[in-house]
Amino acid sequence: MHILSVNDNELNFKVLEQTIYKIVCEVACEVMKDILEQIDLMLLAKRDTEKYRNKGPRKTCIHTVTGEVEYKRRVYETKNEDGKNMYIYLLDQYLKKETIGHVSSNLAEKMVENVLETSYRKSADNIESMCQSSLSHTAVWNVVQELGKRLEEQETRLIGEYEKGNLNGKREIDVLFQEADGVWLNMQGKDRPKSGKSRKKEMKIAKTYEGWEKRGNQKDAYLTYNRTVVASFDKSSDFKKLCDATIAKNYNVDEIQYKIINGDGDPWIKSGIGEEGVYYQLDPFHRAREIVRAVPEKSQATKLNAMFDKGNIDKGLEYLTELMIEYRDNEKVREKLYKLYDYLTGNYEGLIPYKLRDISLPEPPKGLVYRNMGTMESSVCDVIKLRMKGRKMSWTKSGANSLGKLLALRASGELYETLDALFDDTVSKDKLEEIVEEVVQLSAAQVNKQPKRSGYYPIQTAPMPFEGQAMTEGRRAIRNLVENRMPGELVLR
């Protein structure tokens, strides 16, 4: 058997690998088709004939990781709880087949993996090369939008449970750290702001974590531990509810004694101030950046930042006042210094770093340390900016929201777990064993029997692979391979 001629001058390992991969995917699609149709026959015989009336097979197609699978499944007429007629596919119910349009959950997962790294158009190209499924970038976009819609619905339910007091996570900790920031994204179409010069909207991002752990054997390298990230265009009050609900889902909030919030001073970030055990500090990065932007001399900016780093707040504000007097004749500099003064005094309660305050934090859990906060800017960059900002990118509100939530899930280490929950198409172990026993491993004697309600079904009724298609050398080789063999034999060997 020869798939390719060894005398072919264009033959090389790359071409050989690509050809074999394509052939294997085509065979996988044929095997998938055969098995799906055999399960459908099994359900036809086993069904309650009084409850489910067979209305005949219907052809359908699904995009999978191995390519497009065309197969037939029977539609049944039954009645709903109200006694009205309805139509269902027993095969879909039996396998808990969850799709988005005609895209399988496995393929949708691959789409998400690509979209989180590159553009929708490039993702579509990658999918076609890897998974033998030809999909447009619009189809990929639609999948991400549908997943984003499901995530929003999930978050709405979560907030509802939180407001009812039904959330009580199992994890118990004494101290929880929270950092928040926003990233301004270019908007397009009807979602572009109509007033003002800005064409941007702010996506809110919040991160919670339990402390810091060392990164490998590196002496001074630390990572935030057990972090959870949320992102949304929600208004401030709704975003706070989402953050609080997410915390309540993961933690026993009654056991949290201290909550330390780090932010750039935006009112929506400081909304939790005043609650028992909640402390706010102004983000050191944003404070230092504003000082550098306003103070004309580098040495003066360094001196002022050092004062605030050490907790000498009043001394720092006094020095800033001196600078304002010094530059009173320079209108441009003076205005910058005035704005800086307003910014700092407006965040006076957060100017002292939390570690320099009279807060008796308990000892951190084993393996963790409590360090100075200020990781949000790099987190925003890692989570959102690298994918969604720059390169002349612009977004619709729904498009940005969907992608932002998926990026946040990945940053939280919960992407695949959440996608599985959204699809919930896992076949149970018992059901899988039933499929293997009654479909895949049919004996030759059972194949020739007439179908019975409890019995087995003739697999040879399915057409040979590539029936009615153009016959390439590879396809002819595959037909020679499977001729007079059971599908079960091919699967098991």
What does this structure look like?
The chain has two domains: 13-97 and 425-492, no CATH class; 171-405. It is built from 17 helices and twelve strands. The protein has helices at residues 13-46, 90-95, 105-115, 120-131, 137-163, 236-250, 284-294, 298-309, 313-326, 331-346, 376-388, 397-412, 415-423, 429-440, 444-447, 473-482, 487-492; strands at residues 53-64, 67-79, 85-89, 99-100, 103-104, 175-186, 200-209, 212-214, 222-224, 228-232, 258-263, 278-282. The strands form four sheets. It has a five-stranded mixed beta sheet, sandwiched between helices. Strands 1-2-3 form a three-stranded antiparallel beta sheet. A hairpin with a 7-residue loop joins β8 and β9. The two termini are 19 Å apart. 27% of the residues are buried.
Low-confidence stretches: 442-462, 485-493
Structural class: alpha+beta
Question: What share of residues is helical?
Answer: 40-55%
The radius of gyration is 30 Å
Strand fraction equals 15-25%
Average pLDDT metric:
84
* Count of separate DSSP helical elements: 17
How can the largest sheet be summarized? Answer: 5 strands, mixed
* Count of strand segments: 12
Distance between the termini: 19 Å
Strand order of the largest sheet: 10-7-6-11-12
Please tell me what the overall shape is: elongated
User: Order of SSEs, N→C?
Assistant: HEEEHEEHHHEEEEEHEEHHHHHHHHHHH
How many domain regions?
2
